[in-house]
Write a structure and sequence with these properties.
Length: 202
């Protein structure tokens, strides 16, 4: 009968995600991961597989708890134009409040791994398509309810919103100032009649 695990899988996976997010895939060793997860290398392999398998789980967890959670909260509970603005609002807030300038694990992975790894390329391309799909659905719904100009090309507008979002995440790794990020987001949000409405300190 196998012995029960003596560690918290969820906490260990959170620690691995943080390590990958801060340092990237290539720069993170199995030794680094084991240390930050509080495991031996053997326990890590037994529980999660090799470094690549662990990274895939960490990335899936990040996507689910970040992007997909945002879609559930905004798309299903806000008017479509407000859902887009709230998405940008939260991204800008996360960016300016991150002292380590980690950026976005999806974007970081896309830059580091997608160009030369076919499996990660497919997975990350799928996530980016899902992001574009969120914007496309919101734009189409906003055009239907009259809050977003009907003359806009829905597909092109969704692509422009996606490109702006990804650009913000890269820019924030270098200079995460609210004024800069809001200014960068303002023109593309103006296309749909919205503005970034990030929370400000009193």
């Amino acid at each position: 009968m196998p012995r029960p695990r003596e560690f918290d899988d969820e906490a260990a996976l959170d620690a691995a995600t943080a390590q990958f997010w801060l340092h990237g895939y290539e720069a993170t060793s199995v030794r680094d991961l084991a240390a930050t997860m509080g495991l031996t290398a053997a326990s890590l392999y037994n529980a999660f597989g090799d470094k690549r398998a662990l990274y895939e789980r960490a990335l899936d967890r990040y996507v689910e708890r970040g992007f997909r959670d945002r879609v559930r909260r905004f798309e299903h509970h806000l008017p479509p134009r407000d859902a887009i603005a709230a998405f940008f609002e939260e991204i800008i807030q996360l960016s300016v409040s991150d002292p380590h300038r980690k950026g976005c694990l999806i974007v970081n992975s896309t830059i580091e791994l997608a160009p030369h790894d076919k499996q990660f390329h497919r997975a990350l391309n799928g996530v980016l398509k899902d992001m574009e799909g969120f914007f496309s659905r919101c734009v189409a719904a906003g055009q239907k309810d009259g809050s977003i100009p009907a003359a806009l090309n829905t597909a092109d507008t969704a692509k422009a919103l996606l490109a702006s979002l990804l650009g913000l995440r890269v820019l924030a790794r270098v200079d995460p100032k609210r004024e800069l990020l809001e200014g960068a987001a303002r023109p593309v949000l103006a296309l749909i009649g919205a503005q970034p409405r990030t929370r400000r300190k009193n």
